[in-house]
Amino acid sequence: MSSAAWAQVAIVVVALAVAAPLLGRYLARVYGGGAAPGDRIFGPVERLIYRVCGIDPEGEQHWKVYAYSLLAFSFVSLLILYAQVRLQGHLPLNPDHFKGMPPVLAFNTAVSFLTNTNWQNYAGESTAAQLTQMAGFAFHNFVSAAAGAAVGVALVRGLIRRRTGNLGNFWVDLTRTCTRVLLPIAIVGALFFVSQGVVQNFHAARTVTTVEGATQTLPGGPVASQEVIKEAGQNGGGPYNANSSHPFENPNPLSNGVQIFLILLIPFSFPFAYGRMVGDRKQGYVVVATMFVLWLGTSLAIMAFETAPSPVLAQAGASQAATATQSGGNMEGKEVRFGAASCGLFAGSTTGTSTGAVNCAHDSLTPLAGGAVLLNIMFGEVDPGGTGSGLYGMLVFALLAVFIAGLMVGRTPEYLGKKIQAAEMKLVVVYILAVPLAILTFSAASVLLKAALGSIFNPGPHGLSEVVYAFTSQANNNGSAFAGLNGNTTWYNITGGIAMLIGRFFLMIPVLAIAGSLARKQPVPPSAGTFPTGSKLFFGLLLGVVILVVGLTYFPVLALGPIVEHLVGHFHL
Amino acid sequence: MGDLLSIGIMVAFFALAAAFVAACERIIGTDTSYETPVEEAAEPQEAAA
């Protein structure tokens, strides 16, 4: 890799090393109860919301009530978004006169934004009205991220509370995440993106004549305001089909770097908040170190695969050398203003989190880079994952790791003084199996059923990768697409929607149940048999558990897809 | 028809999710012993002067 590529990584790492601990400190005070910074500004707004919605902010909720609140909020907001998408042709702020989406596409789209996935079986600039983008999709970009944060914080409370059935208040956690975390970042970020040339208007698409005499249609819309929460809330759904490859969404290397930073900022901040909330910062450092090693490793691997010459392009006689007009390496599907290395860093960040925004075509990645982004999503969005969801995902792996450690030494496993028993482990198993079950079942059906086979444009191992990627991305609430697959069919819209719902709620509910179970336990004091979970040894164990569990689950399908494709291309089979 | 299918799937899924909450409750059990206050060790009192 070039020095410029290394510099990109270094800048992002330094920026995160400075900002994430500070934001983590702030998050700990936001969720910790008591006075928090900004009470004077945010307090009146929140009190107004509570009064209008009839919320008692002092009311604590049992885990079941917390879970039912999450489900009720999600169900109602899903129905509203579905209705809005279907009826957008009759609603205002639709200067391009788009009709309502067809039912199954509307189902997939509404579920996609509800679940923080933002998988898009449509092109935004030719399908979604501006009101749909602003009041539908962008609203869910805030609240879906906030719901993830609420569940993450509830799990932390389950670990630190003792002999109680309560985990806090879902409505308060949802509101405070929006008002105190996401909105401030969104306002500052949107103004920054506007300054860089990201469009923000209510114009209909305009047809213009270019300097070469051709005609071109330029889309408008409130893009900057959606762009920032798209990245900061790990949503990923762009107003335009090309997402962050589009110059109106991501005009230059500075905006690109800021987008990568925003994608990673909140997920890397949550473990720092966690360390402060549990009163042992080392616990947070272990979680953040595990996330960081996984993210850095996969990102560097993707960058290395993409900046190295592709054997298939070399065979075709394409120049892959670094010149004044291209960065070198595999430039297929890349923006020349970003280059292959930036694509790799963006791809590693967007798939390690639950974002799914793209600044290059993932379908054009070399097979091993494609396999790496696929593996990154398969980790279950824990490196560093989404807002709150990255933290709870990694904490579930931590519970599994202490259980394995307990088996090795023959002691009852403990985590932060709470005994991890059969009930928690059953829920951990449910959590770990739910997503692979959805991915592998739907993928297998898609390569067997005639109704689904017609969507695959590329035969062979690459076609399999595309199918597996589609369900992996949706079930893990990532939302990036491998492309090369027609997802806008009844089969893919419905199965994809179900996969997204499973990947969201069949993980959140066990997490809340684990939190509820742990909250009522009395912590036991550490003894000689207690495994030190704030140690380097536990970091190694946690890292190994994540890699082993995911590797064993998905290796066969990775071998049949990206690995076979690499061998075929490399050895000209 | 498409709307009915879509809304039917949504309703069915959330009904299943609500049932899943109850199933998870069954896994962890309905322990309410935490509602009983733990008897704390009595604070050593200073002897009256």
What is this structure, in a nutshell?
Helices cover 64% and strands 2% of the residues of chain A.
Label the structural class of chain B. Answer: mainly alpha
User: What is the H/E string of chain B?
Assistant: H
For this structure, the quaternary state is heterodimer
How far apart are the first and last residues' alpha carbons of chain A, in Å? 28 Å
Anisotropy-based shape of chain B: rod-shaped
Give the low-pLDDT segments of chain B. Answer: 40-49
Radius of gyration of chain A: 23 Å
Classify the beta-strand content of chain B into a percent band.
under 5%
Biggest β-sheet of chain A, characterized? 2 strands, antiparallel
Mean pLDDT of chain B: 79
Give an account of the 3D structure.
The complex is a heterodimer of chains A (573) and B (49). The radius of gyration of chain A is 23 Å and the shape is globular. Chain A has a two-stranded antiparallel sheet. By secondary structure, chain A is mainly α. Chain A has helices at 3-31, 39-53, 63-87, 103-114, 124-127, 130-160, 170-196, 224-232, 253-277, 281-307, 311-315, 339-352, 367-378, 389-409, 422-446, 450-453, 460-475, 490-519, 536-570, and strands spanning 206-209, 215-218, 414-415, 418-419. Helices cover 64% and strands 2% of the residues of chain A. Chain A has one domain. Chain B is rod-shaped, with a radius of gyration of 25 Å. Chain B is 55% helix and 0% strand. Mean pLDDT of chain B is 79; it is low at 40-49. Chain B has a domain at 2-29. With 49 residues, chain B is mostly helical. Chain A binds chain B through residues 64, 67-68, 71, 74-75, 78-79, 82, 86, 102-104, 106-107, 111, 163-165, 423-424, 426-427, 430, 494, 497-498, 501, 505-506, 509-510, 512-514, 516-517, 520, 522, and chain B through 1-3, 5-7, 9-10, 13-14, 17-18, 20-21, 24-25, 27-29, 31-35, 38.
